[in-house]
Amino acid sequence: MAQRDWRIEYRADAALSDSENARLRHFLFGCFPYETAFLTRRYIKQAPAHRWLVLDEKGGIVGHAAVHEKTIGTQNGDLRIGGVAEVCVASPYRGKGVMKELLREIFEWLHGRDVPFAMLFGQPKVYASSGFQPIDNELAAENSLARHWNPFCGKAMIKPLAKTPWPRGKIELRGPTF
Ligand SMILES: CC(C)(COP(=O)(O)OP(=O)(O)OC[C@H]1O[C@@H](n2cnc3c(N)ncnc32)[C@H](O)[C@@H]1OP(=O)(O)O)[C@@H](O)C(=O)NCCC(=O)NCCS
Fold first, then answer.
1. What secondary structure does DSSP assign to the chain, as a single string?
2. How far away, in angstroms, is 76 Cα from ligand 1 center?
3. Structure confidence by residue, pLDDT tens digits, 15-37
């Protein structure tokens, strides 16, 4: 098997240095060139509390995923979810399962904190093999167009991390989408 030339590291968003901030924004804008938000800040809609970086042998950023600590309102009561956002891998590292491994680490981390679901907005063909399932609940959020999502944002999907059943009915995302 070929030697792996990358590693995954956790970073609390609040602990990022100025130089990491600049490198991260540069990397994110390279992966999402239509997201001008990255010209001035390191998130699109809301600052996440947690990040995972994929680093190459020299410490360069070659992959990233953010996780928001969110509570959603449902007809069964409030549920904690890990809102996964800004998932990206540098072109030379794509198609090697880097994203899938990044997500596996995130699932383990969330599971260890008793968070029953990961949730994201993305393309089902990219996330299905990581266990994400599209959901059809009506969604409400501070900044949303309810269930009509921008196609760049993709479909709302969840990954169950515990035995908790996913609720039916309207989901209130509380705060902005991610
Ligand atoms: C999407 C992205 C993160 C995938 O990273 P990656 O490390 O290449 O992904 P993996 O190798 O782990 O593959 C994961 C799955 O996604 C699929 N996939 C990856 N890129 C895809 C694409 N552009 N179109 C369709 N499927 C894709 C793979 O075939 C694989 O599916 P499988 O397990 O069923 O075979 C990467 O291509 C990227 O950064 N793209 C630009 C930014 C972006 O669009 N991010 C997603 C925002 S929702």
1. -PPP-EEEEEEEGGG--HHHHHHHHHHHHHH-TT-GGGGT-S-SSS--SEEEEEEETTS-EEEEEEEEEEEEEETTEEEEEEEEEEEEE-GGGTTSSHHHHHHHHHHHHHHHTT--EEEEEE-HHHHGGGT-EE----EE-TT--TT---TTT-EEEEEE-SSPPPPPS-EE--S---
2. 33
3. 999 999 999 999 999 999 999 99
CA 74–ligand 1 middle distance (angstroms) = 30
Read off the pTM: 0.94
- What separation in angstroms does the CA of 9 have from each of 54, 80, 97, 102, 148? 6, 24, 16, 9, 34
Residue nearest to atom 16 of ligand 1 (CA): 126
Closest by alpha carbon to 35, among 64, 13, 10?
A: 64
Residue nearest to atom 38 of ligand 1 (CA): 88
**Strand 155-160 with 133-134, pairing:** antiparallel
User: Residue of the nearest CA to atom 21 in ligand 1?
Assistant: 126
Which structural domains are found in the chain, ordered by start?
A: 6-172 (3.40.630.30)
Reported as a single tens digit per residue, the pLDDT across 33-87 is 999 999 999 999 889 999 999 999 999 999 999 999 999 999 999 999 999 999 9
